[in-house]
Design brief:
The chain has one domain (3-176): Hypothetical protein af1432 (Orthogonal Bundle), CATH 1.10.3210.10. The protein has a two-stranded antiparallel ribbon. It has eight helices and two strands, in the order E-E-H-H-H-H-H-H-H-H. The chain has helices at 24-34, 48-56, 62-70, 73-78, 84-87, 93-110, 118-135, 161-176; strands spanning 3-4, 10-11. The chain is mostly helical. It is 51% helix and 2% strand.
Length: 179
Amino acid sequence: MKVLNYQGKMIDPLNLKKEDLSNLGMQCAVTLARLQRFWGQCRESYTVAQHCLSMVEMFEDIELQKWALGHEIYEGLTSMDIPSPIKHSEAYSPYKKAEEKTLILFADEYGLQSPMPTEIKLADKQLLVMEAEALMPFNAECDWREIQVPKGTLYKLGASEHEIRRDFLSKWQELFGKL
């Protein structure tokens, strides 16, 4: 099963290879600046790229900043941001395995410690709760704080896709030295 990506390459989203990570900064900037958080159900537009850029601001350590910017690499390559309750279900096991494999490829390609640090996983949950409380419609059945304590700030709410893509590319270049 192969699909065409932004770069005009045919990729298998459930079996990505090292060569699929070429020009990764640009691929992720374009895709993640278009991909909406929370399955596009927010009251205002908020992208996965904004989420990543916000997470970078939570860390001073360069390795953690790199992981923060790149932790949504799989989504950047496939344009599939699946909500956690679905992603962790048995039906989505192949998706979860493919995502984990891609994160290992990313770490190897960019000289990062593998697996993804627990600090990134914690910050991701904290940021998710903050974003949900700020951007999602209220529902008494959803207690986001059961997941984690909210932390972080929204990144440039209301910014254009172009501005977010430019910011993502700039940060990628700064952290990784290549696109």
